[in-house]
Amino acid sequence: MNRLKSYVRRTILQSARDYAGGKRRTADSTRAAFTDAMRGTDSGWWADLIYTAPMLDMAHSYRRDIAMAFAEYRDATGDRYTFRDSSTGTEIGADEIMSALLRGPFDFEDYRGMNGDDADATLIGLRFAVEWYAGETAHDICPDI
Questions:
Q1: Helix, strand, coil proportions of the chain in percent (round to 5)?
Q2: pLDDT at 82 over 80
């Protein structure tokens, strides 16, 4: 298991224990934690994925695991991932995201400046990978979701 998938699993299972109100998780608390975690990384449930600067650090730290998520997605679906921003009509493909990950690391000044598109692409990659691994982990632990 890669480090990002381990992070996702650990975060969700810790929340399941918190949902149960103690040291042990229950089937219901585990299901609830996975259900909430899979609602997306922009929902606020993922506390580590709220602020841009720490996310940029995470994206760089987990860049190989993010690339692995894109490969797993392609193998599972037969399609290459493409992010589509409905408000602007912008499309960013997995290749562009992985290329940006290789050009990093980016900091908040990059995000707000000349490298904003590349920095934003790395954040899209991180969000995708966390959501992908949350779904994959849910399938392993809570197949009824």
A1: 70, 5, 25
A2: yes
- How far apart CA 95 and CA 118 sit, in angstroms, is 12
Tell me what pLDDT residue 76 has: 95
In angstroms, rounded to a whole number, what is the distance separating the alpha carbons of residues 140 and 6? 13
Distances (CA, A) of 81 to 25, 26, 37, 136: 34, 34, 20, 16
Whether this model's pTM surpasses 0.85: yes
Q: Which residues of 53-87 are buried (b: 16+ CB within 10 A; e: fewer)?
A: eebbebbbbbbebbbbbbebbeeeeeeebebeeee
Q: Write the single-letter amino acid at 82.
A: T
Rounded distance between C-alpha atoms, residue 101 and residue 61, angstroms: 10
Nearest CA-CA partner of 132 in 90, 61, 60, 83:
83
What HEC string does 90-141 produce? EEEEHHHHHHHHHHCCCCHHHHHCCCHHHHHHHHHHHHHHHHHHHHHHHHHH
CB-CB contact of 64 with 73 (8 Å): no
Sequence letter at residue 120 = D
Cβ-based neighbour number of residue 145 at 10 Å: 12
